[in-house]
Inverse folding.
């Protein structure tokens, strides 16, 4: 059975990885290498198409390949011209607030808000749903839906 702590550890690792990408933005080669490892380590692209709907996309808003996810995080891919590199902000912290978790033997779902802190200390609130699959003892994201809250 996947535990709440395992999900929280995966979320913490993911948030720290997003922060690290932004820290490396001036060293493009290192940033690309780290981001490839980050995506490979946190997402299940090696086993299947991942249902990835990142926050700030409107043209090619669904990314089911590793290439699409990499572009979203660091930009630089002409096939995804709207991508500016979400993780290059840079962010200083990512904080998860889980509203609910569904924990199963080899699968977990998490839904809630996560907050991205910028260099001025301002937080951007984003809604998320992540699905996790257990792969060789670690959680891999296979569903990632992220959106800004509705603003009437």
């Amino acid at each position: 059975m996947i535990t709440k702590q395992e999900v929280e550890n995966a979320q913490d690792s993911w948030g720290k990885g997003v922060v690290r990408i932004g820290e490396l933005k001036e060293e493009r080669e290192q940033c690309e290498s780290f981001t490839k490892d980050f995506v490979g380590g946190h997402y299940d692209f090696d086993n299947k198409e991942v249902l990835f709907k990142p926050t700030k996309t409107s043209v090619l808003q669904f990314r089911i390949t590793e290439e699409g996810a990499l572009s979203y995080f660091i930009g630089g891919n002409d096939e995804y011209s709207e991508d500016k590199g979400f993780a290059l902000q840079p962010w200083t912290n990512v904080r998860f607030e889980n509203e609910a978790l569904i924990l199963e033997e080899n699968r977990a779902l998490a839904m809630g808000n996560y907050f991205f802190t910028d260099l001025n200390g301002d937080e951007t609130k984003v809604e998320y749903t992540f699905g996790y699959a257990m792969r060789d003892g670690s959680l891999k994201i296979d569903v990632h839906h992220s959106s800004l809250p509705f603003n009437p």
Residues 4-147 form a domain with the Nuclear Transport Factor 2; Chain: A, fold (CATH 3.10.450.50). The chain has three helices and five strands. Residues 4-23 form the longest helix (20 residues).
